[in-house]
Amino acid sequence: MRVADGPWYELRPAGPGLSHIVERHVAPWMRCNMWLIHGRDTNLLIDTGMGLRPIKPEIAALGEKPVTAVCTHCHFDHIGCAHEFDHRLGHAAEAMDYATPDLVRSCASSWIGAELLTALPHEGYELKNFRLTPAPLTGHLDEGDVLDTGDRVFSVLHLPGHSPGSIALYEKATRTLFSGDVIYDGMLIDNAWHSDAPAYEDSLRRLKELAVEQVHAGHENSFGRERLHELIDCYLAGGQRLGDPAAWVAEQAP
Ligand SMILES: [Zn+2]
């Protein structure tokens, strides 16, 4: 496989004060969405990718203002670059997974396959040697906490199920939800080693009651209220669940 030419990360405007960052050479079916909220005083980076290359040198906007990295949960595809940031927030239930991440606890061992990359981050890179850099949380987020960028306010929702410390950020003023892996427009995962399907159902029932118009999720495309309710209803009826990761990865591979 060739080495990536040009940047690893790509930033796209995604609305007022919001940018969407992706890892260009991680397969679209696996890569996480990173959301950069441009606040008046501080910026928030929601999720940080796999960490295959440093992100700060490539994304100029990350150097403009203080950045707080907010991890929606501890999985390998969301926490890879967290260590680059001085301020790292996540839920206390997964504190150990940020401080001492390993391939099993981060779910990397279930999900990483040779087909995951479309180019190498650097010469000689081998995905079988994938490791995460420890990124101990510098602060904990829990239900009801508020993140204030100076001109925008985001409430923290604790929505366990996919993982015990899964959180989402909700901006009431714009009815926008940054949902991490709690909900995205794809098959949901409720069978990782620390998943809890009944808790997942409760979390999704909660989301259905929330006044949401726009969802920016941890994977796949953003969507609106109607699709949110469709996805939730489908899950609650027993569908929309991914099942065996190995079989699913094999299906996605080109
Ligand atoms: Zn996840």
Describe what you observe in this structure.
With 254 residues, the chain is an alpha/beta fold. The chain has one domain (9-252): Metallo-beta-lactamase, Chain A (4-Layer Sandwich). The chain has six helices and 13 strands. It has helices spanning 76-79, 95-99, 108-111, 197-209, 225-236, 245-252, and strands spanning 9-13, 18-23, 34-38, 43-46, 67-70, 87-90, 139-140, 146-148, 153-158, 167-171, 176-180, 214-217, 223-224. The strands form two sheets. It has a seven-stranded mixed beta sheet, with no helix packed on it. The chain has a six-stranded mixed beta sheet with strand order 8-9-10-11-12-13. Strand 8 (146-148) and strand 9 form a beta hairpin. Helix 4 runs antiparallel to helix 5 (225-236). The longest helix is centred in the C-terminal third of the chain and has 13 residues, at 197-209. The chain is globular, with a radius of gyration of 17 Å. The model has no long low-confidence stretch (mean pLDDT 95). The protein binds zinc ion. Pfam families: Lactamase_B. GO terms for molecular function: hydrolase activity. This is MBL fold metallo-hydrolase. Keywords: Hydrolase.
